[in-house]
Amino acid sequence: MWEAAFAALDQDPRRALKLARKARDLSPDAEAWYNYGSVALEAGDSAEAREAVRRTLALDPEHPDAWALLARLHFDVGAWKEADEAVDNALSRDEEHPEARYLRGCLLERRGQFDAADTELQAAHEEAPDDFPEVRWLSDTAIEAAAEAVLSSLPERVGAALLDVHILIDEVPSDAVLSMVEPRPSPDGLLACFDGAPVGDRGGSDALALLPATILLFRRNLMRIPPDALEAELEITLLHEIGHFLGLDEDDLEERGLG
Question: Which DSSP string do the residues of 190-211 spell out, in sequence order?
Fold first, then answer.
C-alpha cells in the first residue's frame, strides 16, 4: 500500500494521503509514521507531516530519516536554528545521511559559506545521485545569456514594456523575499521573484509605483536544475515573473501554464 501511496502523489495528492493513512493504521510503528509524514509533506500538508514526525521520534528517537524530515519542515518555514539542530541530530545518527547533508549545504548557503555548502551538497549527490543534483557552478554570464534568449523571444510590445525592468542575480532568496511570496515557497526551490508595481500601476503617486521594477534570479537555486533543462526552466520562470509585472495574478498564470 505504501508503494501505491507514493505513486499517487503526482496525480492525486489527496488520494495518496488517504492511502498512506490506511497503510499507517495497519501497523502504526515508527517507520509507518515516518512514511506517512513523508507522503503528507509531498502532498502539501505540513501540519500532518509535523505531527507524523513527532509520533515517529516518540517511538524511535534514533530515527535519522525522521530527524532529516523535521529539518526539512523547519527549513521550509525559515526556522533556521531549529533546522540546524534537526540536521545535527540526523547526522549524529547517520553521518552520511544524504537529505541531512543536503539541508546542511542549503543552510550554509544562507550564511554565505558557499565552499562549505558545495562540499555538503556534492556529498549528498554522491550518496543519492537520483535525489540530489550534482554541484555545477553557474556564472552570471551563463544566467544572463539564458535570460537574454528568453527575453529576445518575447513579442515586441512586451519587450518594450520591460525596458525599465532590471534583472538582477542574487545567491539565495532572503527572508524578506520568502515572506512576500504567497504561498511561501521552499527556500531552495524559488528561482526568481518580481519586486515592484505592475505596469498598469506605474506612474502614479504611490512611492512603490515610482521605484524601478526588478526581477531577482537566485543563482544557487538555478544551479540545482540540470544543465539541459536550465533554459526551458528559466523561460517558464521569467515568463511567470513578467506576468506579475504585466498585472497577472497566480490564477491567470496557472491558466497559461506558468504556475
Answer: --EEEES--GGGTTSSSHHHHS
First-to-last CA distance in the chain? 31
For domain 1-61, give the CATH superfamily.
Answer: Tetratricopeptide repeat domain (1.25.40.10)
pTM of the model: 0.87
Q: What is the Cα–Cα distance from 102 to 47, expressed in whole angstroms?
A: 23
Q: Span 71-94, mean pLDDT? A: 98
The answer to whether the CB of 97 falls within 8 A of the CB of 124 is no
* Number of Cβ within a 10 Å radius of residue 36: 27
CATH number of 140-255: 3.30.2010.20
Within 152-229, residue ranges assigned H as helices are 156-161, 175-180, 207-210, 219-222
What stretch of H or E contains 96?
Answer: none
Which amino acid is residue 74, in one-letter code? H
